[in-house]
Amino acid sequence: MSRALSIFLIVLLLAALVLIRYYENELFYDPLLEFFKTDHSTSKLPEVIYSKLYLNVAIRYFLNSLISIGILWFFFKSSGVLKLSILIYGVFFVILFIVFILLMQSAETGGHMVLFYVRRFLIQPILLLILFPAFYFQKTS
């Protein structure tokens, strides 16, 4: 695969991440998006359909993960990076999703910052921002 094609595909995948973020309200059920834009420190969580919320958070995580892993693959073209990325994304999903469910089920009025950050980690491609420099540093060392 030529370098130009790899760069084009990376840009295309980055654009896909941006589009997911831009159209998040239309694509995914997540009443917490608006909730966390308000003064949520003293508020009660909004009414949610838990199964629908969990499914949509999982779908969004997997979409972001597939795109992020694609970016890592086209940049590094290493089966080691690919395997480790898949493992890291899988482990993080299991741990964070369980924590997310527990936090949603035990949420009380106020004190939602841990829920905010766990959810943010699930719905945004933050792992890409961590793994890319780590793999790049490892490659150049």
Report the strand count: 0
Question: How would a crystallographer describe the biggest sheet?
Answer: none
Give the integer mean of the pLDDT values.
93
Helix content: over 70%
The radius of gyration computed from the alpha-carbon positions, rounded to a whole number of angstroms, is 17 Å
Structural domain tally: 1
Helix-strand string: HHHHHHH
Counting DSSP H or I runs of 4 or more residues, the number of helices is 7
Write up what this structure looks like.
The protein is mainly α and 141 residues long. The protein has one domain. It is 77% helix and 0% strand. It is built from seven helices and no strands. The longest helix is centred in the middle third of the chain and has 27 residues. It starts with a helix and ends with a helix. The mean pLDDT is 93.
